[in-house]
Design goal:
The structure holds two protein chains of two kinds. Chain A is of the alpha/beta class. Chain A is built from 14 helices and ten strands. In chain A, strand 4, helix 9 (272-284) and strand 5 form a beta-alpha-beta unit. Helix content of chain B is 54%, strand content 4%. Chain B has helices at residues 6-10, 14-21, 25-38, 48-52, 55-59, 63-70, 80-88, 110-121, 131-142, 148-162, 172-178, 184-187; strands at 128-130, 169-171, 191-192. The longest helix of chain B has 15 residues, at 148-162. Classes of the chains: A alpha/beta, B mainly alpha. The interface between A and B is large, with 58 and 62 residues. Chain B: One of its GO terms (cellular component) is cytoplasm. Chain B: Pfam families: EF-hand_7. Chain B: InterPro entries: Calcineurin_B_homologous, EF-hand-dom_pair, EF_Hand_1_Ca_BS, EF_hand_dom.
């Protein structure tokens, strides 16, 4: 059996060797080299267009199937709302209710119908409330052949099932290993090269090399996610000594922004792999990492940030003021800390296209590893990034008002809903101050005017 | 109607539910999604603390009372049917529904809406809003923004105006009479889309 096996063995080894070489050459030529130089062959966009056509075909078949069986093909409303909420204020409502009563003016007397306003508002919030909506992934209008986005999509014919099966094979069998290889390459190169650059003396050479290395590694990571990003208004890109603020949907936001420009990151030092990456990155250029204990000290944080922006040779800081991941349909309250520092703010709006893969990280539903797996096994991450013109805090404007102004600009550009709610509501309880505000408003209407009456 | 959907088929007795409440299949599906979203632990029923997790409701001065309206006395859970039936009170009145003499009154009739509002005041369910109960609601809606004296004077005035049989409490009939000029349909209805 010996001599019989060896030609086969040789053949097998040769074939394996050749296929590996071919594989790596293709990888290098089509993906890594363009990443190094920042050019693109346009393969990903072609891929995106093909996918869109396939999705449209799939939806058409489902609709046809539904019509044949005379069923209701349930298409979720794109704004996820069941009811139309009245946006009248408490005062207007009360006046309206009493209009039909004997005393038409709001003369400060309580009427039992006043409770109707609160009752209706309460029931409306039970049926549909803004905050819960922000923390669940957006629903799609058509199916994108991923089981995870299949909400109530029925009538999947056998042809579609075959297509879906093919999709699974392509995504898990071909795309996932490819992406994992790229991700490992990207992260590995980042750690090794930045550590090497750390040995150079501080100076222009070091900064130049650090910039190139960071960009290259982030670009490889972008390709590891098959992220197809469109940057708008690059003339407004953040400059040194400024702070870049953006809306937050997932940890991938960092990679998306950092592959187009160099930023100083801000964050807590983690352990494990993340910590290793953080420690080697900071050798090459000054990022701002905080110890866990330092994070609570607001003054310390503010001081380090303002020291950084004062030094014009340092890179712009990247901050996500919402503080938590939101589902990319709206923008929640910005924390005012970064707006108190007094430097130029460069707002950036990021909007993901959910048709190719849901980028929102619902941290209560799945952890980081699960999330990364989902990211790497979706079709692609497609998003648009808009660089907005820089904004400065104006005279007589406090940090909160400035933050709201920036938030409104970002929401407008990205087509997102501008909400006043605090992202901290994802986990925390509502503060009693909100309820007190409602009570204050109502009592002003009732009792405020009553005082006037009793005096006259 | 003729059109169904497999989600609908998963809900038990859904035809009866639609008939009793008047919701369309699309509404039932949306409400079912909402029910599932509120039922975070997937137990198939809701308890008071699931409602308490809705932030806008926690902000509402009479939020607790509204939550209480979903739970009949002694019960600590709400299933989907009860959830939908209570919400059905807030459907706009069907103006062109034929008045069949023997059929029970629809859940969203003017009278039933008033009964719902009445029970927000009448917490001990004895059929009357006593002076104390009125004071409690007023305190909930006004918080610490008014003094006790102001609260008492408001309560006194209200009872004086509404209490016709001078028993120092407001019965359901007196409640209904004092609100006869109010457009209940508009104020106690929610516009359901589609």
């Amino acid at each position: 059996m010996g001599p019989f096996m060896s030609p086969f063995n040789n053949l097998l080894c040769m074939l394996l060797g050749i296929s590996f070489t071919v594989w790596f050459t293709l990888l290098l030529v089509f993906i890594i080299v363009p990443a190094i130089f920042g050019v693109s062959f346009g393969i990903r966009r072609l891929y995106m267009k093909t996918l869109l056509k396939v999705f449209e075909w799939a939806t058409m078949r489902m609709e046809r199937g539904a019509k044949e069986k005379n069923h209701l093909l349930y298409k979720p409303c794109s704004l996820n709302s069941i009811i139309a909420k009245e946006s009248t204020s408490l005062e207007e409502e009360l006046k309206d209710i009493r209009r039909n009563c004997s005393s038409p003016e709001l003369d400060g007397s309580f009427d039992m119908s006043d409770a109707f306003y609160f009752c209706r508002r309460g029931i409306e919030s039970i049926v549909d409330d803004e905050v819960t909506k922000c923390f669940t992934a957006e629903e799609l209008e058509s199916w994108n052949l991923l089981t995870r986005s299949n909400y109530n999509f029925n009538h999947i014919s056998s042809r579609l099932t075959v297509l879906w099966g093919l999709g699974v094979v392509i995504r898990y069998g071909f795309l996932l290993p490819l992406r994992l290889t790229l991700a490992i390459t990207g992260v590995g190169l980042l750690v090794v090269l930045t550590a090497m650059i750390g040995f150079l003396p501080n100076g222009r050479m070091k900064n130049f090399l650090s910039e190139k290395v960071h960009l290259m590694c982030y670009r490889i990571c972008v390709r590891a996610l098959t992220a197809i990003i469109t940057y708008h208004h690059s003339e407004n890109k953040p400059k040194n000594g400024g702070i870049c603020v953006a809306n937050h949907t997932s940890p991938i936001d960092v990679i998306i922004l950092a592959s187009d420009g160099c930023y100083a990151m801000v964050g807590q030092i983690h352990g494990g792999l993340m910590g290793l990456i953080q420690r080697s990155m900071v050798k090459a250029c000054p990022h701002i990492w905080f110890e866990r204990s330092e994070v609570k000290d607001r003054h310390l944080v503010a001081k380090r940030l303002s020291d950084h922006v004062k030094d014009k040779s340092k890179l712009p800081i990247l901050i996500f003021p919402e503080g938590t991941c939101i589902n990319n349909t709206s923008v929640m309250m910005f924390k005012k800390g970064s707006f108190e520092i007094g430097s130029t703010v460069y707002p950036v709006a990021i909007k993901y296209d959910p048709r190719f893969g849901e980028a929102f990280w619902n941290s209560s539903q799945f952890g980081m590893m699960n999330y990364l797996l989902r990211m790497m096994s979706s079709w692609a991450i497609v998003c648009s990034v808009w660089y907005l013109p820089p904004m400065i805090r104006q005279e007589g404007e406090d940090a909160m008002q400035f933050a709201n102004r920036v938030k409104a600009a970002i929401a407008r550009q990205g087509g997102l809903v501008d909400l006043l709610w605090d992202g901290g509501l994802k986990r925390g309880k509502v503060k009693d101050t909100f309820k007190e505000e409602q009570q204050k408003l109502y009592s002003k209407i009732l009792v405020g005017t009553q005082e006037v009456r009793s005096r006259s | 109607m003729g059109s169904t959907n497999s989600t609908l088929l998963k809900i038990p007795n859904v035809e009866v539910l639609m008939q009793e409440t008047g919701f369309s299949p699309a509404h039932i599906i949306r409400l079912h999604d909402r029910f599932k979203a509120l039922d975070k632990e997937g137990r198939g029923h809701l308890c008071p603390h699931d409602f308490g997790a809705i932030k806008e409701l926690a902000m509402n001065p009479i939020g607790d009372r509204i939550i209480g309206a979903f739970f009949s006395p002694g019960k600590e859970t709400v299933d989907f049917h009860t959830f939908v039936k209570i919400l059905a009170h807030f459907r706009p009145v069907d103006k062109d529904r034929p008045k069949e003499p023997n059929s029970p009154e629809p859940i969203n009739s003017r009278s039933n809406k008033l009964k719902f509002a009445f029970q927000l005041y009448d917490q001990d369910k004895d059929g009357k809003i006593s002076r104390d109960e009125l004071l409690q609601v007023l305190r909930a809606m006004l918080g610490m923004q008014v003094t006790d004296e102001q609260l008492e004077s408001i309560a006194d005035r209200t009872i004086q105006e509404a209490d016709l049989d001078r028993d120092d409490a407001i019965s359901f009939e007196e409640f209904r009479k004092s609100l006869e000029k109010i457009n209940i349909d508009h104020k106690m209805s929610i516009r359901f889309l589609r």
